[in-house]
Amino acid sequence: MDGGKILIVCLYVDDLIFTGNDESMFRKFKHSMMTEFDMTDLGKMSYFLGLEVLQRSEGIYVCQRKYAQAVPERFNMNQCNAVHNPIVPRFKMMKDEEGVAIDNTLYKRIVGSLMYLTATRPDMMYVINLISRFMERPTELHLNAAKRVLRYLKGTVRFGLFYRKGGKEELIGYTDSDYVGDQDDRKSTFGYVFMLSSGAVSWSSKKQPVVTLSTTEAKFIAAASSACQAAWLRRILHSTIKLSKNPVMHGRSKHIDVRFHFLRELTKDAVVELVQCSSREQVANIMTKPCVSEFEGVIGCVSAHGYKLIADSFQFKGGC
After folding, report:
1. In a shared domain, residues 70 and 137
2. 275-302 burial by CB neighbour count: b if 16+ within 10 A, else e?
3. Do residues 82 and 154 lie in contact, with contact meaning Cβ atoms separated by under 8 Å?
4. Residue 28 falls inside a structural domain
5. What are the phi and psi torsion angles at 20 (to 5°)?
6. 176 and 108 in contact (C-beta within 8 Å)?
7. What's the pLDDT tens digit per position in 122-162?
8. Number of domains the chain contains
């Protein structure tokens, strides 16, 4: 940072991308790097670590189309029929102790391949979190669920995230919990989605670390974890502290009383604003339970045919 000018650099092995808000800093940085190292300027980012980026006047579209096409082919599912949902609504998965065991190496390869897609596919976050719980002893039940995800992927390879230019700069988060969603250990599942400039920028779906005794406690845990993430994102956006020294990342309090006071302090200090959200508007439902597939547009998850961006053809519907 220099007088309000910002330069952000991301380096992975020998691939480097950067962004910021000042063209002169771009030129100085590129000149200094190309003077010091043998580097090639490839222009605006279009492909980076499997992420495909389309930068247009309307906004920026990010997807993993090429990788998404390769995953079904890798497991001989490229000729399968596509489905509209990654998981059957109201379907519950469990250990299936009496089921027929399958090759867990194959199952782990499928789940591992799908995990990388969650970088641009929040619509698949919940189901991938679900099937990843059974990698120790998967059965045909779990394999069929994983294959359904591949069938869903086959029909949605062009799905990605669209960030519209000139969108709202307000950070809005949704959080939800599915009380005792896990049928084996009775732990609840919680998730969140944070929106910025018409698209999702942060999302998560995971089991809670403890068994909760009520829906209220489950929601408090979900709210506290989401508040930690909200405070962390807020500090990133405001560039006030270094990420490595961020104290709110360690939100592992075990008692509801601690979470209550933590939330109360954040609300009192106007760091977060807690607002009750109806189920029809609850975007985070897609992180905690099987939902209908017509929700993508709300989180900025859209499909691109060639270079045409389609951002208005999806609408969130209830029924989760």
Report:
1. yes
2. eeeeeeebbbbbbbbbbebebbbbbbbb
3. yes
4. no
5. 170, -160
6. no
7. 989 999 999 999 999 999 999 999 999 999 999 999 899 98
8. 2
> Coil, helix or strand for 49?
coil
Say whether both 186 and 253 belong to one domain. Answer: yes
Condensed to tens digits (0 to 9), the pLDDT of residues 264-284 reads 777 777 777 777 666 666 777
CB 80 within 8 A of CB 72: yes
Contact 162, 63 (CB under 8 A): no
Going by C-alpha positions, the residue among 114, 103, 107, 105 that lies closest to residue 71 is: 114
Report how far residue 208's alpha carbon sits from residue 189's, in angstroms, rounded to the nearest whole number.
Answer: 6
Task: Report which of 174, 172, 233 is spatially closest to residue 197, judged by C-alpha positions.
Answer: 172
φ, ψ of residue 258 in degrees (nearest 5): -65, -45
Q: 189 with 255, same domain?
A: yes
Q: Which residues pair with 233 in a beta bridge?
A: none
Residue 89 belongs to domain spanning: 64-156
Q: Does residue 300 lie in a domain region?
A: no
CA–CA distance, 175 with 286 (Å, rounded to integer):
10
Query: Cα dist. 5→24, 170, 179, 196 in Å?
Result: 10, 21, 46, 21
Question: Is the same domain home to 173 and 143?
Answer: no
